[in-house]
Amino acid sequence: MLKGREIAKWHLNYVYLGNVANVNSATYCPQCKNLLVERNGYFTKVYIEENRCPEYDYEVNIIL
Predict the structure, then answer these.
(1) Span 33-52, pLDDT tens digits
(2) Which one-letter DSSP state was computed for residue 10?
């Protein structure tokens, strides 16, 4: 799964593995690498209120 995630990241901006322990499943802005969504087990914290990165106003195309 980890190798598949790395391959997918070459082609997709928002790749994460869900329900996998000890793996970084956060979502970052593809432009500035700012943390947008943090995931840990069943816990999710969203750091954006709209489809824009708050750091550089980059459109991130995430369905909230």
Answers:
(1) 999 999 888 889 999 999 99
(2) T
Q: 60 pLDDT band (50/70/90 cuts)?
A: very high
CA–CA gap between residue 4 and residue 15 (Å, rounded): 10
User: How many Å apart are CA 50 and CA 33, to the nearest integer?
Assistant: 17
Closest CA to 47 of 39, 37, 61, 60: 37
Q: Which amino acid is at 34?
A: N
Q: What are 33's two structure tokens?
A: 């690498």
Q: How far apart are CA 62 and CA 64, in angstroms?
A: 6
Per-residue pLDDT at 2: 86
Q: Which residues pair with 28 in a beta bridge?
A: 35
Cβ–Cβ under 8 Å, residues 56 and 49: no
